[in-house]
Write a structure and sequence with these properties.
Blueprint: H1 2-9, H2 11-31, E1 44-50, H3 56-71, E2 77-85, E3 88-95, H4 101-114, E4 127-129, E5 138-144, H5 149-159, H6 161-165, E6 170-176, E7 181-187, H7 189-194, H8 199-209, E8 211-219, E9 224-231, H9 236-240, E10 243-247, E11 250-253, H10 254-257, E12 258-264, E13 269-274, E14 277-278, E15 280-286, H11 292-309, E16 314-321, H12 322-352, H13 355-362, H14 364-379, H15 385-414, H16 419-444, H17 454-488, H18 498-523, H19 525-543, E17 558-563, H20 571-586, E18 591-600, E19 607-614, H21 624-636, E20 643-646, E21 658-663, H22 668-682, E22 688-693, E23 699-706, H23 708-713, H24 718-730, E24 732-739, E25 742-750, E26 765-767, E27 773-775, E28 780-787, E29 790-794, E30 797-806, H25 812-826, E31 832-836, H26 837-868, H27 873-878, H28 881-894, H29 901-930, H30 935-965, H31 972-1011
Parallel strand pairs: 7-25
Antiparallel strand pairs: 1-3, 1-4, 2-3, 2-29, 5-15, 5-16, 6-15, 7-12, 8-9, 10-11, 13-14, 13-18, 17-19, 17-20, 18-19, 21-30, 21-31, 22-30, 23-28, 24-25, 26-27, 29-30
Length: 1012
Amino acid sequence: MKLPTFCIQRPVFATVLSLILVLIGIMGYQNLQTRFFPRFQKNKIFITTTYSGASANLVESSITTPIEKAISGIEGIDYTTSVSSQGGSKVVAVLNPGTNRYDITNKIRNQIAMASGSLPSTIQAPVVHAGYGDMELMDVGFSIQGGHLKVLRDYLDRNVIDRIEQLPGIADVGITGANKYAMRITLHPSKMTARQVSVNDIAQAITNNNLELPAGYIKTPSMAFPITAKTELHTTSQFGNILIKNTDNNPIYLKDVASIKLGSDTESKTIVRVNGQRSIVLTIYNSNDANPINASQRVAALLQKVGAQLPSNMHYAVTFNQANYMKASIAEVYKSIFLAILFVAIIIFFSLGKIRSALIPIVTIPICILATTGLMYFLGFSINIITLLAIVLSIGLVVDDAIVVLENTYRHIENGLSKKEAALKGAQEIATPVIAMTLTLAAVYAPIGLIKGVVAHIFMSFAFTLAAAVLVSGFVALTLSPMMCSKFLTGTTTKKSKFSESIEHFFHRLTYRYQKALSYVLLHRLKIIMITAMMLIGGFVFVSTLPKTFLPKEDMGFIITLLNSATGANDKYTETQIHTINKMISSDSGVKTTVSLSFQHASNNNGNLIFTTLKNYNQRKQTAEQIAASFNTTMKKVPGLNTVSFAPSFGGSIQNDISFYIMAPASYRYLYHVGNALVTALNHYPGLSNVKSNMQFNNQQYNLTVNRPLANQMQVNVNTIDNTIADLLGGDTVSTFHLAGQTYDVNLQASASYLQSIQGLDQFTVATATGQFVPLTNLIHVVPIRTQTNLFHYNRLRAAGISAEVTPGYSMGNVVNYLQKALPTLLPSQVKYAFTGQARRIVNSSNSLLTIFLLAFVFIYLVLSAQFESFLDPFIILLAVPLSIVGALVSLKCVGGSINLYTMIGLVTLVGLIAKHGILITQFANTLQKAGESAHDALVHSASIRLRPILMTTAAMIFGALPLIFATGASAVSRQQVGAVFVGGLFFGTFFSLILVPIAYSYFAQLKKWLA
């Protein structure tokens, strides 16, 4: 190859090539975004519809089912789920990997618009949006001293929320803890009946008296003046003085039949406490395509300005910031990069014994890392936890080719050649193996471009970053390294230091012993093969119980505690329980902040949680999972508490480990019984705990049916009956009003005393067509029933959700495998199942990862076949790979790891790394054979000569990965497991490469001779 020769003869040219790479890298690095994970599109689209006052059954039949039908034919949707509840519907469309989310969103909007005629006319238009992450970006708590929370809520609505939502990268800001202002008109049915006033009379009067319209213009010859009729109402007294009717000069005003006050827009409320103090929490979500770290920085900068402008009795505190974990994780990886460079430099120096010699491979590290960041920029990548991990591992790899060039040049100097002659001859000899090794490792990742989905996208960021580093290192090894060898290495006449001589003596003795061992191995090939096969089988048996997960469970720095209140528990009892839990949680030394939320609704369906933010990793002794376990242990001792605490991993929403739907074209009652039977059966499996179904017929409901013959006889319109019931019981927004630049609702509803029991209907009356008032209960039948609060669908079929926790000691993957075998036998034939959440990701990722792994083997075999012009030599080279994989898995099991996305990335990379050893031995042995040596002599000669570079490159890679094994802090578990895979795999793989490759070569040499 002429390039190394040209660079040796033109040292300035070689130096300029590397400097150009450095400059490109610096420019690229400055423009790279910093993120946590590689950027990829979320694959969910949400369709939400509000239908005030409607029951879950009505919402299901009139909204959810028509919307699902409308979007069912859209190509690109994988599956749909939905929930119909009182007052609203939510449909979720999950897209196939690689689908353009924006195109599908527009198609969904169009289909819903076409189907709008089949939807109720009184609903609010369905809202279609592409959604945001499962977990919020930030939570910010606001409190007020000596003031009402509604005042604080109004201040936030006016001065804070809009400013946050306008920031780039922010998708939505939710507010919890206080309701918005509204003009609440509380009707008194007894007074209305006494004065012969109907609900329709009141609604019509409010609408007619509360409006502001342009009245036209007054025009002069030179000017035009707009006229506005200021007829809008603003105060409680103005609303109270609305004239409802005037009968026989007896005016009836709204205040005569109703109480009017500026109150909350809904009776439902959520009580929020931050560290025990009543507060309001803003939940901030970043958009799908936003950089979470940058978005959080913008929010933090704005909050500083907001804090300076807050009234003296208002305060705020950031209770959760997901970006803190991301930044801490990235900082830890940067620390690993520094340590890896240090360790690799030390091992190179100790392997060579000379600083001048060690500088040749060491200088390739910064060049390759910087050049790689430049290539990352051109590839559209970002600085994230995956690409940085690739850079950490590349530090031990980028010196490999330079070490091989250096060692070969040094060997020729030892044989008496000058520095320049040795560099020329050494580079020419090693150019082909360097190219082969570089292309081999790059070929491992080629199949990733053929796979779609989140797994492939994340894998691609790692693979292409590492491949870029390896390609750059190969280029540097063929340009800069030979030139530096010709300038920096010392000749045989130069006196060596004692340390250098001791290093040389060590390698000479090691090579001699290896030659003797290799001779023994070649004489007892069959015995060695049998021992190796037994070790391989035993190793696979040992690691067969390795757990399988999508991502390893990380310490995110927060814990979620769920409190299930007893059915019918009142607000006071719930508040007492939350206070007890808060006190217990706050007593832990690792806790920083607690945020409790008690969701109290008019329907008396309570749900409560406590969100606990922990102190920094270096400020606490226990992990989040250990602290959560201690919470569970402590709370079990308190009578009456039904709680569960858990520490979500990255992307962890408030959901169980295992979740799936069962669905069938049948009634919910049927699914209820099937689900209960399934829960009972699964509770007997020790790998699952807290198995439960989301289908509970515990919601008290009353079905009201109209006596139509009697209503017709009394000339009462059915629509009048419906409107009266809806307005009095469910509440209705009949108008709006403006106050200080903000718009608020005007709500009608019966007094609370009429809503406490079904007997309140006895006081309601409706007007007939002749103006007479008759009791509502005369015209309706009331039937009490038990029903569900929420009605679920999966792919348009009625469904029930089953969820469970994985018992400690069992892995998610093993539990999923059990369920895949057990569910078909436990469910009736017409009932199907589908995993969701983490379980679904495991099923999908297992297929993708297995495909990538198998294709990697095929691609590397084909590339090696093309390079060696042989279909037999690749078998020799790849023979040690299975044992390397076993070694990696054994190491993984020893550190308590799992087979997950990170470790599979390591295993695929290991295939290419171990193949490099076989390439060095096989290529040189082939060259020696062509020069006339026998197969045996060429093999022993080649293996002995290549021993030192193989050991040096392996040591560099192992020491480069050591910082990962000893990682601490954020995202440490992932790095520890990847480090274990690399260190274990490289150690075992190198050992067996030095034994099995020679054995295989000797057998195949005999086979080639026989075939010839």
